[in-house]
Amino acid sequence: MTKILVAEDDSTTVQLVEFLLKKNNFEVLIAYNGIEALEITKEQKPDLILMDVMMPKMDGIEAIEKLQEDKTTQDIPIVILSALGQEMDVMKGLQAGASGYLVKPFSPKELLDEIRAKLRKK
Questions:
Q1: Which end of the chain is more exposed for a tag (fewer CB within 10 A), N or C?
Q2: How far, in Å, CA of 76 to CA of 72, rounded?
Q3: Closest by Cα among 79, 71, 117 to 99
Q4: What is the CA radius of gyration of the chain?
Q5: 49 near 58, Cβ under 8 Å?
Q6: Structure pTM?
């Protein structure tokens, strides 16, 4: 089963994304901050990561940069899910190493399409 890590500090968003992913036969891992996201990624090696930007302890951009520096995690596709939708925010996320960027609120179809496209490329 394909494993997806959801790194998000908002419990409502976590519940919605988790429900959608499980309904579509994905295994779901959850991290509530950037540090947990790094730890879970190193232990579990998810097939894809959905990363929020604004999180406690370590933000998503810093977490992405650290994952990109590590040879064991740098090939995992990362899609940012963020309320920050300015062009500069998107560029910053993609420059850090994310392979996709969705602005909240997003539709379930949009999220699933993005996930499937990134998994196909992998």
A1: N
A2: 9
A3: 79
A4: 13
A5: no
A6: 0.97
